[in-house]
Amino acid sequence: MVPIVSIVGKSGSGKTTLLEKVIRELTRRGYTVGILKHDAHGFEIDHEGKDSWRHKKAGASTVALSSPEKFAVIKDVKTEWPPERIIASYLSDSDIVITEGYKTSWFPKIEVVRKAHSTKPVCAGSKELIAFVTDVKMKTRLPVMGLNDYRGVANFIVREIIRKKGTFPTVSLVVDGSPVPLKPFIDDLIREAVTGMIRSLKGCSDACDIELKISRKTKRGNG
User: Fold this and answer.
1) Residue 59 scores a pLDDT above 90
2) pTM above 0.90?
């Protein structure tokens, strides 16, 4: 699993503004940044009249668009995918994944608190909370950075998240759509067994990033 940190806070606290500046700063330093934003109210990215929109309206459950520079997937889901599944599927090649939201996840969290909006943290007491970004004088033992100190936030993310990559699991296991936490010895066992077998295959001796998906679904008949 790629290193992950969540930027959390109440709506209007300035999360997106901070995140935009932090992304630019980390990218300037040479890091590849993946972003996952949670939208509890739903969203629409397709445009009426476009080929992908027409395919979707015709009944396709998944529409993928690909070009030499990028690809996109529009997929119906019966239940919301957990962030671990999205990250493992699409963001695992990043040096750091920053999520906006996901206040109840296990990810380390940096909370933005802006005095003009609210002085009460939403994640106070959470063991995953690792720092504050705020213009409020906080009574806390956690690190506190200013609202405009995007370089300080970037430094903190590099020091406490990216450089501590070894503290994150190296194997992502998703079973029937739900992430399964692995104990360290199981993580090691799966990684070593799969990596050993894959590297024995022709052309795979230097494999570093391996994706394996096993499906036990039976094929439907043509009748």
Assistant:
1) no
2) no
